[in-house]
Amino acid sequence: MSQIQTAPTGLPRRRVLASAFAATVIPPVTASTLPRTNDATVLALCAEFWRVHDQARSPVYSIAHPFGSQEQRQTEIELDRLCQLENGLIRQLAETPANTPDGVRAKASLLQRFLPEFLEYGALDDESVEMELVMGLLADIARGAA
Asked: Across-strand partners of 21?
């Protein structure tokens, strides 16, 4: 006569062994094993930021025009427009989660290049778009996107 052997907990031995086997075969679901969406939006926003940034630093805008002249006013208007575009892109990047190491790297490289400049000119405060991007990047990392 065969008896079902039980583990000290009272569960049938076969069920305990099956559970132990399943635990070693099926990996736990963690942030690193979940499917990740691509970061096409983050990468496109970074590329657009660099395009606008390069345009704003074009030699065309470094030409000194007489103060108050039409050329000087137009240059200031165009530079202001480009700065507003940069700020808008940074804000969009801050609000767009990075889901892959490439997206995290793109955000981090932007900050790595410009954070010292922002700090030097005292343009950072807790409400600046740059700080929004810092906090967004930290959230991406904490979520396991890196």
From this structure: none
Please, are residues 137 and 104 in contact by the beta-carbon 8 Å criterion?
Answer: yes
Would residue 65 count as lying in a domain? Answer: yes
Residue 6: strand pairing partners:
12
**For residue 56, which amino acid is it?**
A
Please list the alpha-helical segments (H only) found in 67-142: 70-95, 101-120, 129-142
Count the alpha carbons within 13 Å of 67 in the hemisphere toward its beta carbon: 0
Q: How many domains does the chain have?
A: 1
- What is the pTM (predicted TM-score) of this model? 0.67
Domain that holds residue 54: 40-142
Average pLDDT, 10 consecutive residues per value, the chain (146 residues): 48 40 35 59 95 91 88 92 93 93 92 82 75 87 76
Residues near 124 by beta carbon (within 8 Å), at least 6 away in sequence = 118, 130, 131
